[in-house]
Amino acid sequence: MSQWCCDKPPASQPPGTPWREISGWWLAVEVYSPSSRVYDREFKRPAYLRLGVREVWLVDPWEQEILSLRQGDARETAVRDQIRWQADGMSAPLVIPLPRLFEGLRISLPE
């Protein structure tokens, strides 16, 4: 996961900075693997939200969707067309067209 912090530019957060010293997390992105689906959804996502991450995306390459949950929302949103994200201070949102992101991806779950 890339580390982006809202009150300091990413370069001011050197690799190895302890989690407890980082504040203002904007976004966490996890990509499911066959062995991590339940762990990412049931354990890591709530942990990110408790740490103060404002939004968590779980990328599901098999379903070709992103499950998005924002701090304070009761339910996640499944996104299949395009996902938008805008941090405080950004002049325009980041827009990711998911069909293009998943284009050419051919995977299957292990048996």
Topology:
Blueprint: E1 27-31, H1 37-50, E2 55-60, E3 65-70, E4 77-79, E5 82-85, E6 94-97, H2 98-102
Can you summarize this structure?
This protein is an alpha+beta fold and 111 residues long.
Strand content: 25-35%
- Within the largest sheet, what's the order of strands? 1-2-3-4
Look at the helices and sheets and give the structural class: alpha+beta
Please give the share of residues in helix: 10-25%
What would the average pLDDT be, to the nearest integer?
A: 83
> What would the principal axes of the Cα set say about the shape?
globular
Q: Which segments are poorly predicted (pLDDT under 50) over 5 or more consecutive residues?
A: 1-5
What is the number of strand segments? 6
Q: Describe the sheet with the most strands.
A: 4 strands, mixed
Radius of gyration: 15 Å
Order of H and E elements: EHEEEEEH
Query: What is the straight-line distance between the termini?
Result: 28 Å
Q: Assembly state here?
A: single chain
Please count the helical segments: 2
Give a verbal description of the structure.
The chain has helices at 37-50, 98-102, and strands at 27-31, 55-60, 65-70, 77-79, 82-85, 94-97. The chain has 111 residues and is α+β, with helices and mostly antiparallel strands. Strand 5 and strand 6 form a beta hairpin.
